[in-house]
Specification:
The protein has 73 residues and is mostly beta strands. It contains 1 helix and 4 strands, in the order ββαββ. The chain has a 4-stranded antiparallel sheet with strand order 2-1-3-4, with helices on one face. A hairpin with a 2-residue loop joins strand 3 and strand 4. The radius of gyration is 12 Å and the shape is globular.
Length: 73
């Protein structure tokens, strides 16, 4: 059984009235290749920008190695 290294739960990002990412969930396991696919405007770049810390999520949480990233600069 693989260990989850990155977990996203209920991630939402709104820019004013526009919801760019709505309740996204994702689990990335150690040693596995994971792809994010979707049409233009689906929220892929917004998701990566939240993971990288460029944007703060409106709601939801990100866990890396089981630790919340909420208070990580």
């Amino acid at each position: 059984m693989s260990e989850t290294i990155l977990e996203i739960r209920g991630l939402t990002k709104a820019f004013g009235g526009l919801v760019a990412l709505n309740q996204a969930d994702l689990a990335v396991e150690t040693g596995k290749i994971t792809a994010i696919i979707g049409p233009n405007g689906a929220g892929k770049t917004t998701l990566f920008n939240i993971i990288a810390g460029v944007y703060r999520p409106t709601s939801g949480d990100i866990f890396f190695n089981g630790q919340t990233m909420k208070r990580t600069p």
